[in-house]
Design a protein that fits this description.
Structural class of chain A: mainly alpha
Largest sheet of chain A: 3 strands, antiparallel
Shape of chain B: globular
Shape of chain A: globular
Strand content of chain B: under 5%
Largest sheet of chain B: 2 strands, antiparallel
Order of helices and strands of chain A: HHHHHHHHHHHHHHHHEEHHHHEHHH
Distance between the termini of chain B: 51 Å
Strand order of the largest sheet of chain A: 2-1-3
Number of domains of chain B: 1
Helix content of chain A: 55-70%
Number of strands of chain B: 2
Largest interface: A-B, 46 and 45 residues
Helix content of chain B: over 70%
Oligomer: heterodimer
Number of strands of chain A: 3
Chain lengths: 565, 544
């Protein structure tokens, strides 16, 4: 019990941090109130350090997920704390400082805002710790519930409230769908424990076919969770919510719920597939190692549609926030290629980052989080006062015109972030995409890789436009001025530096992702013959891949689909 | 030659760009010129140290492990083909900088900075012995070129730059997919005799080559298609050439020179380095198809040139036509054709680069590129006209000038490349899938080239002097007053190019000698691994 508890230390620290923030944020003393951000950052730092030292000891099919996921959540979370400063109570604080009114605990919402942020991160971390469907559901909801409020309060005016309401209702719909899926999964496998579900699904698959109820449950769960990652068909809220919320909150929406969603999808999918090959400790990567056909087809279609819809819609936008919203959809599509490609085999297999789709997804989450944060940070650090005296963030393409000349730091942050998101070598984004490409090819999913490539080219349209506007145009007609909150451009600068500096640390990061993406060997409790009989492809000798046999033509797409059940 | 030297050659312009970013705007030109001259010096040292008699061997090989998880390393090396192109890049560097002294008036730091970054990336492509390094540099050339065109080009520059970027980016993403397939294929090969890197996730070009040839012919065809998606856009091969005239016309002079001189060669070099060694059996199978595209490009682009009145566009389309010869020589798949093709890369860089420089110099004086508005300039600019005639002749492939040698070799290669003739015991025939018909049709391209280039020279240089009406008004508010004819600076820019054109035309032997070994090896490799089609040919009864 105590060992299991140690897995939760980062979450516990965040919880304590959230409680602390809630108290000090209500202090009538300005100095104490302003410690809120530091307290959040401090608890994230401690949680991150604890996470790195957590041993990978979960019982799910992906036991190594915890340290990596929690560490990147804490790392990007630190940048988000910087970026989120001054989001909710800036005007109140200004008025209080000017002596126009006294501090009122009832009106202040800084404390809740920071606490909600920490709760959301805690929920995302819990998704990686969860070993049970109930936990997983609660963790997902813990991730999302605070964000609904954060969106609604992030700016004054009806737009943020509209965004908040829209986000909440669609989020509730998504939650309903995946909860229904979880229930069916329980009905089809007789357990809520993920390891037992994995074993039961494997047994059903080996014996013939997966229980249709369980399969329907899996599908519903995946579709429901696709709300969190903003994938088709649950992507419709993305542009509106990203535009309605303040840019720092949008940056958070693009990272925290997405990470939680991908962790959940990886965990669920790993219960149903990839691990069939581990029979009697034999590494049979490349054969019979596939997802159930129904799930595979569903994910394939979702991935292809998500990338294409996201990118095509992003091209059409005139608002940068909406554009980044749709591009967030597209990036989820890219990552689904890695989900389809599957996991690297066990510790001893020798397969590296390049062949592991799960590792590619995990690495890409970091790459995307860093690059995306930079772009939103630039928007958050350009502002002007509208006629009502409210501060408005930059949003249209024209607002960042000539940014590299008028404020070089913000401009170059935008250029580097956009180019990294585009995946231009040698920036960090290229290596993220490179991992997805190679994992897709290693899994034999050539059609999807070509779609991924063409989509990257479509993405060039709008990212290039962002680069051209901020780098090449002359600064003119922009009424936006750099913000007085220096933490925001600082967050942007750190992330822009990150897309360059992290290249040097690509190797340890990739190794950590590879370690995190390993599937635990599983014994099925049925005879290996039973499994082999069920597999349409014959198991090759250990270590030989079958799909690239020297003489063989590329295996047709469908060949792997039926494998394993 | 050591690996350090190659790394220095690659990084020196980048370092220059960093220095330039920190210096005041006024010093940009000086810093850029010195950096490129230094790089030229380093390239000179490298070329002296290079053992040209061992042209086929990779020299200056060095390797630095970087991210073993992804199989990434930084590894460099150059054979004589790469070395020639490195030399060409280094030579065009200072020429481009020096040529921009009067043309670029605003945001000089940005301009020269990106020019230097571009040079680094291009050198990196030729030095790379690692797929990822190659691809990184190959892709990264897009950004500087995009910025150079869209900031410093003429009226339609934004559209041209975007079209250039999107065209090339789309193609090269597919190339990446193809190359990654080869890497994955190599990783699944577990027979140790296959090559040094079989069964490992590696991006080492030399190691991949051994595994790649084992792909089935179907796989090879797909990989060929994926690779050509990127390389053919870059070259550009006939139906994919539509970005080029626009980009060339809109680019600033130095941009056009780099574009014609080196950037297009990235495509042909990519074909030489990847397509031939990686997918030999597909190349043999689809060589006629590629050759037909080349010939269509040669003739079609040539005819377009004929009706141009924008002189820069004319030279741009002539590039499409000329590079058709280059690829034709390559897909002839014999030594003479391949050597001609490599030589063509260098020659085209020299002569077309010089033509773009000349047009730029004319444009700075008259602010028009229309042959209807200016003409008969020999009367006013005799030195300019002399150079114009000279480089036009080099481009037409007049015997005695460089263009002739390579164009002749490419056609010769295509003519001889017919396995049927070898079977029939024809003397001089080599194994191949083209033949005299291809060479004959492509040969009409020479006539077309003579027509349009002579027409251009005739209109621009001879006849009654025509100057645009607004000419004097323009001149009055142009701050640096240019002399009517070429200044000493402009002559210094053109002279080395002219000298090289002459030397390579009159005495190409040393270059051809050093190209013999690598091209022979490449051609042998292709036929050795071309499967059934590569089987030894026995003459079925020679001629009496």
């Amino acid at each position: 019990m105590i060992e299991r508890l140690s897995l939760l230390y980062p979450e516990i620290v965040l919880f304590l941090g959230a409680c602390l923030v809630m108290v000090i944020g209500l202090s009538p003393k300005r100095e104490v109130r302003s410690l809120c951000g530091f307290a959040s950052a401090g608890s994230l730092l401690i949680a991150g350090l604890l996470a790195i030292n957590t041993s990978a000891g979960n019982t799910t099919p992906l036991p190594g997920l915890l340290p990596y996921v929690k560490a990147i959540l804490a790392g990007v979370g630190l940048l988000l704390v910087l970026l989120l400063s001054g989001v909710v109570d800036r005007r109140d604080e200004e008025e209080i400082a000017a002596g126009r009114r006294a501090f009122s605990a009832m009106r202040s919402n800084r404390a809740e805002f920071h606490a909600f942020f920490l709760f959301s991160l805690m929920g995302a971390m819990l998704c990686a710790t969860a070993d049970d469907l109930i936990w997983l559901f609660l963790a997902l909801e813990l991730t999302s519930l605070p964000t609904y409020v954060m969106v609604a309060v992030s700016t004054r005016g009806t737009r943020a409230q509209e965004a908040g309401v829209k986000y909440f209702f669609l989020g509730a719909l998504g939650a309903g769908i995946f909860l229904y899926g979880f229930a069916l999964l329980y009905g089809g496998t007789g357990s809520t424990n993920l390891a037992q579900i994995a074993r039961e699904l494997a047994r059903q698959g080996a014996a013939g076919d997966i229980n249709p109820i369980a399969m329907a449950g899996l599908m519903l769960a995946v579709v429901g969770v696709s709300f969190k990652i903003a994938a088709v068909p649950m992507h419709f809220y993305t542009p509106d919510v990203y535009q309605g919320a303040a840019a720092p909150v949008s940056a958070m929406l693009a990272f925290v719920p997405k990470t939680a969603g991908f962790v959940t999808i990886l965990t669920l999918v790993s219960c149903a597939g990839w691990s069939y090959g581990f029979v009697d400790g034999r590494d049979v990567y490349g054969a019979g190692f596939a997802l159930p056909a129904e799930l595979r087809i569903a994910l394939w279609v979702i991935a292809a549609l998500t990338m294409t819809v996201g990118n095509v819609m992003a091209v059409l936008q005139t608002s940068i926030k909406r554009m980044l919203g749709y591009s967030s959809v597209a990036h989820s599509g890219y990552m689904l290629v890695g989900v389809l490609a599957g996991a690297a085999a066990g510790e001893e297999s020798g397969y590296s980052f390049a062949q592991s789709g799960v590792a590619a997804v995990l690495f890409y989450l970091l790459v995307y989080g860093v690059g995306n944060l930079g772009a939103f940070a630039v928007l958050a650090s350009m502002e002007r006062r509208n006629p009502d005296g409210e501060l408005v963030e930059a949003d249209e393409f024209g607002d960042v015109r000539g940014l590299c000349r008028s404020s070089p730091l913000a401009g170059w942050t935008m250029v580097l972030s956009a180019l990294s998101l585009l995946g231009l070598p040698p920036l960090l984004g290229f290596f993220g995409k490179f991992g997805l490409f190679s994992a897709g090819i290693a899994a034999g999913d050539y059609a999807l890789v070509v779609i991924l490539g063409l989509n990257s080219a479509i993405a060039a349209f709008y990212y290039l436009r962002l680069v051209a506007v901020s780098l090449l145009d002359e600064p003119q007609g922009s009424t936006y001025a750099p913000t007085t909150i220096l933490a925001r451009p600082l967050a942007g600068a750190v992330s822009a530096l990150g897309v360059i500096v992290l290249i040097a640390f690509a190797e340890p990061l990739m190794q950590a992702a590879t370690k995190a993406g390993r599937v635990a060997p599983m014994t099925l409790g049925v005879s290996p013959e039973g499994v082999r009989r069920a597999q349409t492809t014959e198991l090759p000798e250990p270590g030989t891949g079958d799909r690239g046999a020297p003489s063989g033509a590329p295996a047709p797409e469908g060949e792997h689909d039926g494998a394993g059940h | 030659m050591s690996a350090t030297l190659l790394v220095i050659l690659t990084l020196l312009p980048l370092a220059g760009a960093a220095v330039l970013a920190l210096r005041p705007e006024g010093q940009a030109r000086t810093v850029a010129l010195w950096t490129t001259l230094l790089a030229l010096g380093a390239a000179g040292v490298a070329m002296v140290q290079f053992r040209w008699d061992h042209g086929a061997d990779m020299q200056g090989v060095g390797r630095l492990e970087w991210a073993p998880s992804l199989g990434l390393s930084l590894s460099v090396g150059a054979d004589s083909v790469a070395m020639l192109l490195i030399g060409l890049t280094a030579l065009l560097g200072p020429i481009c900088v020096y040529a921009s002294f009067t043309a670029i008036e605003h945001r000089r730091r940005t301009y020269y900075g990106w020019l230097l970054v571009l040079q680094s990336a291009m050198t990196g492509v030729f030095c790379a012995r690692d797929l990822v390094l190659f691809y990184t540099c190959f892709e990264f050339t897009l950004v500087p070129m995009y910025i150079l065109i869209s900031l410093y080009g003429s009226t339609n520059r934004k559209k041209a730059a975007t079209k250039f970027f999107l065209y090339t980016f789309t193609g090269s993403v597919l190339t990446l997919a193809g190359l990654l397939f080869v890497v994955w294929f190599n990783a699944t090969q577990l027979v140790p005799t296959d090559g040094p890197g079989a069964g490992k996730w590696t991006f080492d070009i030399g190691a991949l080559q051994h595994a790649a040839v084992r792909m089935s012919s179907g796989q090879q065809a797909w990989v060929l298609a994926a690779m050509m998606a990127g390389f053919a856009v870059k070259v550009p091969l006939f139906p994919l050439h539509t970005w080029l005239p626009l980009a060339h016309t809109e680019a600033p002079t130095a941009g056009s020179v780099i574009l014609a001189g080196v950037l297009l060669k990235l495509g042909t070099y990519g074909m030489y380095r990847f397509v031939l060694p990686f997918v030999p059996s597909a190349v043999v199978e689809y060589a006629p198809f590629l050759a037909v595209l080349c010939i269509m490009g040669i003739v079609y682009a040539g005819l377009i040139c004929w009706v141009q009145e924008d002189v820069k566009k004319l030279v741009a389309y002539s590039s499409v036509s000329h590079l058709g010869f280059c690829i034709l020589g390559m897909v002839a798949l014999n030594q003479i054709g391949l050597a001609g093709s490599v030589l063509y890369m260098v020659n085209h860089g020299l002569s077309t680069g010089a033509l773009f420089l000349l047009i730029g110099m004319m444009y700075e004086r008259y602010h028009t590129r229309s042959m209807r508005e200016v003409g008969g300039l020999a009367a006013k600019m005799p030195i300019w006209a002399t150079f114009m005639v000279f480089f036009a002749m080099a481009s037409v492939a007049l015997p005695g000038l460089n263009g002739f040698v390579s164009e002749f070799m490419c056609l010769m290669g295509a003519f001889q490349a017919d396995s049927e003739f070898v079977r029939a015991g024809q003397v001089g025939a080599t194994r191949g899938v083209l033949g005299p018909v291809y060479a004959a049709v492509a040969g009409t391209g020479i006539i077309v080239a003579a027509m349009y280039l002579l027409m251009m020279v005739g209109k621009m240089c001879f006849g009654p002097l025509r100057e645009p009406h607004a000419h004097h008004a323009h001149e009055s508010h142009a701050p640096p007053v240019l002399p009517p004819d070429l200044s000493a600076r402009e002559i210094v820019i053109l002279l080395p190019l002219a000298a090289l054109c002459l030397v390579l035309g009159l005495y190409p032997r040393p270059v051809l000698q050093t190209l013999e070994a690598p091209t022979t090896r490449a051609v042998d490799w292709v036929w050795e691994h071309a499967g059934v089609r590569g089987a030894p040919l026995a003459p079925q009864g020679g001629r009496p």
